[in-house]
C-alpha cells in the first residue's frame, strides 16, 4: 500500500473537484460530489490498513491475530451513510428542479443574481 | 429529546391534526430549552463532561465518545434551542402545511435541525462533530428547499448543499489525517497527542482541511456566495434559524477545534493563525457590508449583513484572547435575536404583499405601523445601538480588537453602520415611503425580490399574532442581553474558560472536578463602547438618510431605447425568436391562457390593486407584480412554451423582416417580444416557475444577442462552448410561430420535443452568444 493509497485519495479528491467546477449538468455535479467523498473512504481505509492483516472479526480468529483498525472501518461506514443521505437528497432536489425549471444546466438557472 | 420528538412527529404526523403536531413540536423544543438551561446552571464556570455509554477514560486514555460542554458551547446550543422554539411558535399559523402523508414533516425537520446544532455545539469528539455537522447540513438543505413547487429554493438549496458537503468532506479528510498521525478522535485526546510531538507539515495540512468545513459553513469570504442564495429563498422561519445560529456555529466550530486541538505546542502557532483568520474576517466583513448595501431584495440584504457580521465574529475570535471571545459570544447572542427578528418581519412582508423587494414595496408598508417599528428597532440593533445586546457585544469586541490594531474598531463601526443603514433605508422606503421612488435598472441582472411566492395560501386572513409577537420577543431578548450585566459577566467568564485549553483537557481526560479559577475579561458598558455604539448608529442613520435623498439616476418609466445600434445580424438560427416580436401579430397568449396583458402604466411599481386570490387569479397577480417598464425584456415566461413548428423558411422570413427593422425598430420588436413571451405563458399551475423573476433572464440572454445592452452573463467560455452548448441554446424559436396549439401544456410539450429534435439536427450552431 504505502504512499500510493494517500496519493490516490488526493487524486480522487482533485478529480472530483475538477468535475464539480466544470460541470454543466447538476446530476453530473452531484456525482462529482460523490467522487470527492469516495476519496475519504480511500483515505480512511488506507489509514487503518496493516499488511497481512485480516478483518477485525474475532469470532473465528485467535485474539492475537493481526487485524486492520476497526475504528476507521466504523468511520468509513458512517461516512457511507452520511454520503448516501446527502447524495439522495441532492438528487431529489435536482429531479424536482428539472420538473419545475426544465433544465439541469447550472448556467441556465438564472433565478439568483446580483 | 428533539430526536425523539422528530421521530414521533414523522411517524404520527400523518394522523395528528395540525394543532396537535405543532403543540408536540413546541413541547419538545421547550423541553430542550429547559434541559439546556439546567445544563447552563450545572456547568457553572467549569466543563460538564459526559461519556456516552459509560466508556469512561482509564488513566487518561479512552475509546469512548464524549460530550463536553462549557458555557460557550451551551450558549450556542441554547441560542439554537431558543430560536427553534421561536420558529415553531412563528410557524404556528404561518405555514400552509401539506396535509395527509407528509404532515408533520416540517416540525420534524425543525427538531432534527435543532438536534444537529445542539450536538455540534456540545460534542467533544471530532468525528462526532463531523456527523452532527452533516446532519445539520442535510436537514438545512431539505428545509431550504422545503417549498419544492418553486424552483428558486431548489436552486439555492442545491448550491448550499454542494458547497457545504464538499467542505465537510474536506474536513473528514483532515480528520482522517489527524487520526493517522495520532490514533485519536476526541478533541481533547487529539490535543494532548499533538502536544507530545513536534509540529509537522501533515498536522498543518490537516488543520487547513479540518477548518475548511466550519469556515465554509460560516460563509467566510471566498465561500460566502452560497449563503445569500440559500437565505434569500428559504422560507422565512428557516432563514431565522440559518442566519441566526447555524452560520455562527461554523465560527464556533472553527474556534473550538482550533483552541482544543491545534493551539498547543504541537499544533499550529498562534502567530501563523491570527493573521490568516484576521484577514479572512476582515475581507468577509467588508464583502458582506458592501454587498448588503447594494441589495434590494430584503432577504438577500439581511443575508449579506449576516456575512458582514460573521466577518466581525471571525475577527473577534481571531484575536485569540478571552476578551475577544467574550465580545464575540455576546455579540453573537445579540445578533441571533435581532437577525432572526428581522427575518421574521420579512416573513410578515412576504405574507402581506407577496414581495420582499425594497423598490416594489415602496411605501406600501404604511398600513403596518407595528411591523415598521419593530423593523426600525431591528435595524438600529443591527447598527449597534447601545442598550441592545449587539451594542454591548460590539463594544466588548471593539475593546479587545483595539488592543491589537487601532483600525479594527473602525472596521466594526463601519460594518455595523453600513448593514444597519441598509436595513434602515429599506425600512424607511418600505414602511414610510420616504425619499423618492428608486429608479429601475431593468437591464442589469439583479435579484429583485419580486414575484416571490407567498408562503401562505390565504393572504386575506388577519395577520396571526405569533408572527408579530415572536420577532418582538426576540428583539426583547436582544435588548435583555445588553441590559443584563450578570449575563455578560457570566459569558466573559465562560470565554476565559473557553480559551483555557489545559483546563478543558484536564476536565475531559482526567475528570478534574475543580478547575483553577480564571480572571474573566471585563464585560460591561464602558464610555468608549457607548460612544462607538452611538457613533455607528448615527452613521447608519446618516447613511440611510443619504441613500434616501441621494440623486436619482433616472426617473422610473419605460426603459430608454438601446443606445448602441445592434450589431450586424448574425446567423438565422439565433434570431428566430425575434420573428414573433413583429408588430401586427395577435398576442396569442391572451386567448389561450386567459391572461390579460397588463397595461404598461403599472410598470415598475407593482400594482397597488393586486388581486388577493391565488389560483387562476394568482397568475394575473404575478403578472402584475412583475410588471416592468415595457420593452425591458423582463417579465418573460420560460422558453418552454413556444413550439417549433414554424419551419426553416418561416424562420428565414422572420429574420429577413427583422433585418429590415434594424435601429429603432429593434426596440419595438424587443418590446413586443417581452410582452408576447410573457403572455404566452401557459397554465401557471403547470409552470409555477414562470412567474418568478427567475426565468426572465433566459429570454434576456437571448435578446442579448441583438441588443447588447441587455446581454447578460458572460457565457461564452471555452468550456461552455465545448460542453452542453446545444443544451443551453435551445432558442425560443419564435414565441408565437406556434400555430393553434390547443393548450399551453400541449405547446410546451411540443416545444420540448422540438427542442430535442432541433438539438440533434442543428449541431453546428454558432458558438458565440
TrEMBL record, chain A:
GO terms for cellular component: plasma membrane. It is a multi-pass membrane protein. InterPro entries: CPA3_antiporter_subunitC, NUOK/Mnh_C1-like. Keywords: Cell membrane, Membrane, Transmembrane, Transmembrane helix. Its main location: membrane. Belongs to the CPA3 antiporters (TC 2.A.63) subunit C family. This is Dehydrogenase.
UniProtKB/TrEMBL annotation, chain B:
This is NADH-ubiquinone/plastoquinone (Complex I) oxidoreductase. Residues 124-417 form the NADH:quinone oxidoreductase/Mrp antiporter transmembrane domain. Belongs to the CPA3 antiporters (TC 2.A.63) subunit D family. The keyword Iron-sulfur does not apply. Residues 749-759 have a biased composition (Basic residues). It is a multi-pass membrane protein. One of its GO terms (biological process) is ATP synthesis coupled electron transport. The chain crosses the membrane at residues 72-92, 104-123, 129-146, 158-181, 201-220, 232-255, 275-294, 370-392, 404-427, 467-488. It is found in: Cell membrane; Membrane. It comes from the Bacteria. The keyword Transmembrane helix applies. Pfam families: Proton_antipo_M.
Amino acid at each position: 500500500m504505502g504512499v500510493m493509497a494517500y496519493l490516490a485519495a488526493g487524486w480522487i479528491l482533485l478529480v472530483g473537484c475538477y468535475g464539480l467546477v466544470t460541470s454543466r449538468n447538476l446530476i453530473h455535479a452531484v456525482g462529482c460530489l460523490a467522487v470527492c467523498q469516495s476519496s475519504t473512504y480511500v483515505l480512511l481505509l488506507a489509514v487503518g490498513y496493516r499488511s497481512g492483516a485480516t478483518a477485525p472479526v474475532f469470532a473465528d480468529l485467535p485474539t492475537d491475530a493481526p487485524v486492520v483498525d476497526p475504528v476507521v472501518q466504523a468511520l468509513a461506514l458512517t461516512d457511507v451513510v452520511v454520503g448516501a443521505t446527502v447524495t439522495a437528497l441532492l438528487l431529489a432536489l435536482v429531479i424536482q428542479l428539472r420538473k419545475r425549471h426544465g433544465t439541469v444546466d447550472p448556467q441556465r438557472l438564472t433565478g439568483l443574481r446580483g | 429529546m428533539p430526536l425523539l420528538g422528530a421521530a414521533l412527529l414523522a411517524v404520527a404526523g400523518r394522523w395528528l391534526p395540525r394543532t396537535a403536531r405543532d403543540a408536540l413540536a413546541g413541547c419538545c423544543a421547550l423541553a430542550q430549552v429547559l434541559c439546556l438551561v439546567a445544563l447552563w446552571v450545572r456547568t457553572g464556570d467549569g466543563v460538564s463532561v459526559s461519556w456516552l455509554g459509560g466508556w469512561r477514560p482509564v488513566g487518561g486514555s479512552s475509546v469512548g465518545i464524549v460530550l463536553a460542554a462549557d458555557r460557550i458551547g451551551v450558549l450556542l446550543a441554547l441560542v439554537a434551542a431558543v430560536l427553534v422554539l421561536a420558529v415553531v411558535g412563528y410557524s404556528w399559523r404561518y405555514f400552509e402545511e401539506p396535509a395527509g402523508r407528509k404532515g408533520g414533516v416540517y416540525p420534524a425537520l425543525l427538531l432534527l435541525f435543532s438536534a444537529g446544532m445542539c450536538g455540534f455545539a456540545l460534542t467533544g469528539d471530532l468525528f462526532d462533530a463531523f456527523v452532527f455537522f452533516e446532519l445539520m447540513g442535510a436537514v438545512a438543505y431539505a428545509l431550504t428547499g422545503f417549498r419544492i413547487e418553486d424552483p428558486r429554493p431548489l436552486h439555492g438549496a442545491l448550491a448550499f448543499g454542494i458547497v457545504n458537503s464538499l467542505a465537510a468532506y474536506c474536513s473528514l479528510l483532515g480528520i482522517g489525517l489527524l487520526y493517522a498521525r495520532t490514533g485519536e478522535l476526541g478533541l481533547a485526546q487529539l490535543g494532548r497527542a499533538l502536544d507530545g510531538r513536534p509540529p509537522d507539515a501533515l498536522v498543518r495540512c490537516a488543520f487547513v482541511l479540518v477548518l475548511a468545513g466550519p469556515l465554509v459553513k460560516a460563509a467566510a469570504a471566498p465561500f460566502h456566495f452560497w449563503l445569500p442564495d440559500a437565505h434569500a429563498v428559504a422560507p422565512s422561519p428557516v432563514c431565522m434559524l440559518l442566519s441566526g445560529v447555524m452560520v455562527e456555529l461554523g465560527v464556533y466550530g472553527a474556534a473550538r477545534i482550533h483552541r482544543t486541538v491545534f493551539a498547543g505546542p504541537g499544533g499550529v502557532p498562534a502567530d501563523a493563525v491570527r493573521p490568516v483568520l484576521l484577514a479572512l474576517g476582515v475581507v468577509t466583513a467588508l464583502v458582506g457590508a458592501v454587498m448588503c448595501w447594494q441589495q434590494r431584495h430584503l432577504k438577500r440584504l439581511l443575508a449579506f449583513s449576516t456575512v458582514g457580521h460573521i466577518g466581525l465574529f471571525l475577527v473577534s475570535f481571531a484575536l485569540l484572547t478571552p476578551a475577544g471571545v467574550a465580545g464575540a459570544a455576546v455579540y453573537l447572542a445579540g445578533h441571533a435575536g435581532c437577525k432572526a427578528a428581522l427575518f421574521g418581519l420579512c416573513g410578515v412582508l412576504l405574507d402581506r404583499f407577496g414581495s420582499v423587494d425594497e423598490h416594489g414595496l415602496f411605501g406600501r408598508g404604511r398600513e403596518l405601523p407595528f411591523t415598521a417599528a419593530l423593523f426600525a428597532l431591528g435595524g438600529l440593533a443591527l447598527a449597534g445601538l447601545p442598550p441592545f445586546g449587539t451594542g454591548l457585544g460590539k463594544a466588548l469586541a471593539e475593546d479587545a480588537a483595539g488592543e491589537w490594531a487601532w483600525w479594527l474598531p473602525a472596521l466594526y463601526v463601519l460594518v455595523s453602520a453600513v448593514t444597519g443603514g441598509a436595513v434602515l433605508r429599506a425600512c424607511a422606503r418600505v414602511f414610510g415611503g420616504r425619499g423618492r421612488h428608486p429608479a429601475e435598472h431593468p437591464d442589469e441582472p439583479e435579484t429583485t425580490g419580486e414575484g416571490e411566492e407567498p408562503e401562505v395560501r390565504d393572504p386575506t386572513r388577519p395577520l396571526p399574532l405569533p408572527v408579530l409577537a415572536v420577532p418582538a420577543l426576540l428583539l426583547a431578548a436582544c435588548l435583555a442581553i445588553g441590559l443584563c450585566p450578570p449575563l455578560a459577566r457570566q459569558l466573559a467568564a465562560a470565554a476565559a474558560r473557553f480559551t483555557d485549553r489545559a483546563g478543558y483537557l484536564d476536565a475531559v481526560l482526567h475528570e478534574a472536578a475543580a478547575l483553577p479559577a480564571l480572571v474573566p475579561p471585563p464585560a460591561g458598558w464602558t464610555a468608549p463602547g457607548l460612544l462607538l455604539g452611538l457613533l455607528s448608529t448615527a452613521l447608519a442613520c446618516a447613511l440611510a438618510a443619504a441613500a434616501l435623498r441621494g440623486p436619482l439616476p433616472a426617473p422610473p418609466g419605460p426603459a430608454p431605447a438601446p443606445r448602441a445600434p445592434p450589431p450586424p445580424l448574425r446567423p438565422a438560427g439565433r434570431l428566430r425568436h425575434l420573428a414573433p416580436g413583429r408588430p401586427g401579430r395577435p398576442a396569442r397568449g391572451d386567448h389561450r391562457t386567459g391572461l390579460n396583458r397588463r397595461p404598461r402604466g403599472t410598470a415598475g411599481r407593482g400594482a397597488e390593486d393586486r388581486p388577493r386570490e391565488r389560483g387562476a387569479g394568482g397568475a394575473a397577480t404575478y403578472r402584475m407584480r412583475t410588471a416592468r417598464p415595457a420593452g425591458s425584456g423582463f417579465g418573460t415566461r420560460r422558453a418552454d412554451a413556444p413550439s417549433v413548428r414554424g419551419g426553416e423558411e418561416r424562420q428565414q422570413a422572420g429574420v429577413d423582416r427583422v433585418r429590415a427593422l434594424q435601429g429603432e425598430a429593434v426596440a419595438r420588436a424587443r418590446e413586443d417580444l417581452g410582452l408576447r413571451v410573457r403572455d404566452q405563458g401557459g397554465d401557471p399551475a403547470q409552470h409555477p416557475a414562470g412567474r418568478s423573476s427567475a426565468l426572465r433572464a433566459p429570454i434576456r440572454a437571448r435578446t442579448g444577442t441583438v441588443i447588447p445592452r441587455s446581454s447578460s452573463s458572460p457565457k461564452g467560455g471555452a468550456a461552455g462552448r465545448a460542453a452542453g452548448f446545444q443544451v443551453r441554446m435551445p432558442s425560443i424559436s419564435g414565441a408565437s410561430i406556434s400555430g393553434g396549439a390547443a393548450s399551453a401544456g400541449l405547446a410546451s410539450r411540443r416545444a420540448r420535443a422540438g427542442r430535442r429534435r432541433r438539438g440533434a439536427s442543428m449541431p453546428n450552431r454558432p458558438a458565440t452568444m
